[in-house]
């Protein structure tokens, strides 16, 4: 299964970049640079990773990260989104300052054991890609007021955008999670933020 997902990731990456290397990268980076803005700030939060570790906002300060909301039994956008995040993880595999953070919107069903299997399905690296659980009474306001996306009152109502966060915990952009053509812009923005050494 992981081999199939990995192949899908490679295909998605090939589509996004058109296998054209640096020739298309400069315009995309320039477009991303012009789009740099601070949308908001992620509030403090505490959640449990599938391996039992407690992850907080404080743990992510100093890192550039991409967040999303999902649930493991989702048959709609989640598999596409997780496949794209698998590609993103691979692209920045050797960059310790980059993380992926996925929040389950169905914590009752998505137990640590279930999340562990889901993580393995998409080739998630334990120190690179977190799968977090928290009570819905905390998750809903975090999504709505913190990340400024649709509150996941019902699992199927979760947001389907990737949320880009900089080293200082500030939201810097939203990218459609099911649009493979948006991947190139997201990856370019990640690279720009990794090169930021002080708040803009």
Secondary-structure map with pairings?
Layout: H1 2-17, H2 22-35, E1 40-41, E2 46-49, E3 54-56, H3 57-60, E4 64-70, H4 78-91, E5 98-104, H5 112-121, E6 129-133, H6 136-146, E7 161-165, E8 170-176, H7 183-194
Parallel strand pairs: 4-5, 5-6
Antiparallel strand pairs: 1-8, 2-3, 2-6, 4-7, 7-8
Helix pairs in contact: 1-4, 2-7
Please tell me about this protein's structure.
It is a single chain. By secondary structure, the chain is α+β, with helices and mostly antiparallel strands. The protein has a single domain, classed as Glutaredoxin (3-Layer(aba) Sandwich). Helix content is 40%, strand content 20%. It has 7 helices and 8 strands. The chain has helices at residues 2-17, 22-35, 57-60, 78-91, 112-121, 136-146, 183-194, and strands at residues 40-41, 46-49, 54-56, 64-70, 98-104, 129-133, 161-165, 170-176. It has an 8-stranded mixed beta sheet. β5 (98-104), α5 (112-121) and β6 (129-133) form a beta-alpha-beta unit. α1 (2-17) packs across α4 and α2 packs across α7 (183-194). It starts with a helix and ends in a 6-residue tail after the last helix.
């Amino acid at each position: 299964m992981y081999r199939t997902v990995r192949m899908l990731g490679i295909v998605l990456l090939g589509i996004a970049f058109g296998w054209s290397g640096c020739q298309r990268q400069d315009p995309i980076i320039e477009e991303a640079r012009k789009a740099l803005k601070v949308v908001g700030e992620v509030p403090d939060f505490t959640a449990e990773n599938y391996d039992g570790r407690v992850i907080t906002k404080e743990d992510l300060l100093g890192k550039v990260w991409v967040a999303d909301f999902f649930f493991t039994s989702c048959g709609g956008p989640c598999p596409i989104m997780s496949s794209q995040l698998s590609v993103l993880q691979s692209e920045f595999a050797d960059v310790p300052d980059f993380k992926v953070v996925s929040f389950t919107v169905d914590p009752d069903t998505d137990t640590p054991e279930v999340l562990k299997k889901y993580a393995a399905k998409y080739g998630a690296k334990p120190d690179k890609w977190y799968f977090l659980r928290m009570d819905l009474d905390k998750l809903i306001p975090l999504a709505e007021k913190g990340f400024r996306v649709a509150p996941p009152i019902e699992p199927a109502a979760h947001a389907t955008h990737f949320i880009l966060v900089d080293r200082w915990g500030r939201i810097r952009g939203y990218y459609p999670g099911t649009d493979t053509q948006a991947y190139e812009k997201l990856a370019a923005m990640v690279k720009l933020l990794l090169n930021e050494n002080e708040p803009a």
